[in-house]
């Protein structure tokens, strides 16, 4: 997605009028999954992304319920572990 489109999505959904590297849009409600389910969509702006794999992992972790803006570093630590294993 280009910078203008991701900026519009960021403004509309997060109230931040600036482009970003990755946005995640969950489909299902949070809670235990009893069977496989769709998590949602990850939107990436290559112009603002240095590492595409890292952006994908970051977006998917958000879809799994992690939030680095409010946790104590757990999400980014998990992200590093996942990237090491790829």
Question: Can you put this structure into words, describing what you see?
Answer:
The protein is α+β, with helices and mostly antiparallel strands. Helices cover 42% and strands 12% of the residues. The chain contains three helices and two strands.
Keywords for this entry:
12% strand, alpha+beta, single chain
Short description:
With 86 residues, the chain is of the alpha+beta class. It contains 3 helices and 2 strands. The two termini are 24 Å apart.
* Gross geometry: globular
Poorly predicted regions: none
Number of helices: 3
Mean pLDDT: 92
Chain-wise SSE layout:
Elements: H1 3-14, E1 22-26, E2 40-44, H2 52-63, H3 74-85
Antiparallel strand pairs: 1-2
């Amino acid at each position: 997605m280009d910078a203008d489109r991701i900026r519009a999505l960021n403004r509309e959904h997060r109230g931040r009028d600036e482009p970003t590297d990755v946005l995640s849009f969950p489909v299902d409600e949070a809670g235990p999954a009893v069977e496989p389910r769709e998590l949602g969509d990850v939107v990436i702006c290559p112009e603002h992304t240095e590492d595409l794999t890292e952006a994908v992992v970051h977006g998917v972790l958000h879809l799994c319920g992690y939030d680095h803006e409010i946790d104590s570093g757990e999400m980014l630590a998990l992200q590093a572990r996942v990237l090491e294993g790829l």
